[in-house]
Amino acid sequence: MAETGPDGAMRMMDEFRAAGAVEALRAAIAAAVPRPVKLMEVCGTHTMAIARAGLRGLLPQEITLLSGPGCPVCVTAQGEIDAFLALGERPNVVLTCFGDMMRVPGSAGSLEQMRARGTEARVVYSPMDALVLAIEQPSKEVVFFGVGFETTVPTVAATLKEASRRGVRNFSVLAAHKTIPGALAALASAPDLAVDGFLLPGHVSVILGEAPYRFLAEEHGVACAIAGFEATDILDGIRALVEQIRDARPTVANRYHRAVRSEGNPTARALVDSVFAPVDATWRGIGLIPGTGLAIREEYAPWDARARFADLDWERFANVPEPRGCRCGEILKGALTPRDCPLFGRACTPARPVGPCMVSSEGTCAAYYRYQL
């Protein structure tokens, strides 16, 4: 039965307006696209929103929409995951992480499986929750797995400052954070990919603003558009991209003004810079990208898990291969779609994931499986 009453009528009007806006944007994109183009959505939240709304089916056939390395759990190197799990094998260590990481397979199983065998592990909603746990359990070593892009790093930086201020010595962070612009440079330079435009991540751009992406347009000639997460936001971003390509005038178009300021969030960036320093980082599927990782600065070494557990053989986690048969790495750089992976939907499902792209709520394989793409 159709919903009635003032609220129902208002909701129906909103749906009609949204449908009209979607159709108008679809028509504008079709009119503007000048030739076959490859566009890449960088953000995992965009990937899920595109799949949920069925936007690929609305785009003209001249547009190929690729999914990029916008899932922080997915791009975390296998060795980084194995190192975190290795810390859980030590006595009196409590591993803490965000929920997606619990089921990501390491080389010898997931954290969820380790917990079933007795490893102490907790899902937390913020790194500050992990710090509180350390304060409450002073006899335990609480380690937080710092995974994420520019969006989440400021909260980790604030937590490390608070741990230092309060002198909490049984808390540490295993930093595996990564920064987006350098990864986009690597993709823009890949001759086998030939991306014409990037749909840039809304959440990351709240922190970064517009300037860190300009080199993509100026040096690589790639169109860029920052977009929000509603269907109309995403289509508006795609329209901006095809118009730039049509006019041969690549730039960074901010189509998410309600959340992203041109300068981003300088306060958050300054906080991160005071705690972390850039280092080279290995991205699953892409490889080593200079300056795209974040290491904890020396003054916060007492809360750096790598320094606290210095006796662990960290070098053995440097070049751990991905799971046999998993094509997650190639999917993350847009070279393949999940349907190209022989494990997809067979040996690899959300109930029995082989790689992180099937586990994460922002993973491309999870989106394709859930929405039957």
Structure, explained:
It is a single chain. This protein has helices at residues 5-32, 44-53, 72-75, 78-87, 111-116, 127-136, 153-166, 180-188, 202-208, 214-220, 231-247, 266-275, 305-308, 328-332, 364-370, and strands at residues 37-41, 63-67, 93-97, 120-123, 141-146, 171-175, 197-200, 223-226, 252-254, 276-283, 287-296. It has 373 residues and is of the alpha/beta class. Strands 2-1-7-8-9 form a five-stranded parallel sheet. A hairpin with a 3-residue loop joins strand 10 (276-283) and strand 11 (287-296).
What general outline do the C-alpha atoms trace?
A: globular
CATH class of the largest domain: Alpha Beta
- Report Rg: 21 Å
Q: Helix-strand pattern, N to C?
A: HEHEHHEHEHEHEHEHHEHEHEEHHH
Largest sheet: 5 strands, parallel
